[in-house]
Every structure is written in C-alpha cells, then in structure tokens.
Sequence to fold (161 residues):
Amino acid sequence: MRYLGIFILSMIFWLLVTFRFTLPNIAAGVVASAITAAIFGRYYFHNVGKFLQPRRWFWFTVYLVSFIWACIKANFDVAYRVLHPAMPIKPGIVKVKTTLKSDFARTLLANSITMTPGTITVDIIGDEMYIHWIFIRSEDPALYTRMITGRFEEYIKKFAE
Fold:
C-alpha cells in the first residue's frame, strides 16, 4: 500500500511537471513513477491509510485556500509598509506555542509562516516556535499567536496529524 501511495504521488507530479497527456508521456511517467516507488517506497508513508482519506484532502484544500488568501493579504501589508514614507515597522522575535504533535505538522506550520510575507520562522524548539515578525501588533502571547498562525494550525491539525 505504501508503494501505491508513492506511485500515485510521483505520477501526479510527473503530469504536473510535463503537462502533456499523450500516451508516450503517460507511459514514461508510469515507468518513472514505478521506479521511484520501488526505490523510495520503503522510506516514506508509514501510514498510507491517512493519505487516502477524502476528509484529509478536503481539509488540505481548505488549508491551501486559506494559505493563499493569507499570502495575498500579507503581500499587500508588506508592500504598504515598504512604500509608506514613514516605513511603519516594529520588528521583533516572538515565541509562539503550537499544539501540533507531529514533526511533519510543525514543519508544515513553520514553512507556512515563513512563506507568508512579513514573518520568518527562526527556530523550533519542542512545541515552541520563534518567529521574526515585521510588525509586532500585540504584546499578548495568545493574541499574537492567533494572529501569526491564523487558521493554519487548525487546518493542519485536521489533515496532517
């Protein structure tokens, strides 16, 4: 079952990269995906049952929409701060506590925060993340944790743990 998951992901990636749906290209993709699954299948996806649950795919899609919207808003916010004559920034590093349990989920949250303009995850120690923020809006840890993680943590918990 684990090999099937790697094969499907490899095939989807092949089709997205080549974006040609001809018979020779699909055949080459099947061969490349089969080789990839045979070589790397034993290293990944220890619990393939999670990967195949439609509920997780739904929450992953919701997360992607939420992430894209947060990135768009953050881009406008950073552009405003850069273009404003007074350059209204108040940078600093804040400590955010996460409730995510798995390393994969924490890494996904940290990368989501880093890819959102205006924030960079500096370090992860246990269940705490240190994040550089371009404009610290609050001194209250609960409030700024909610502002930085947004709904990312809630959605990641539903599909990655």
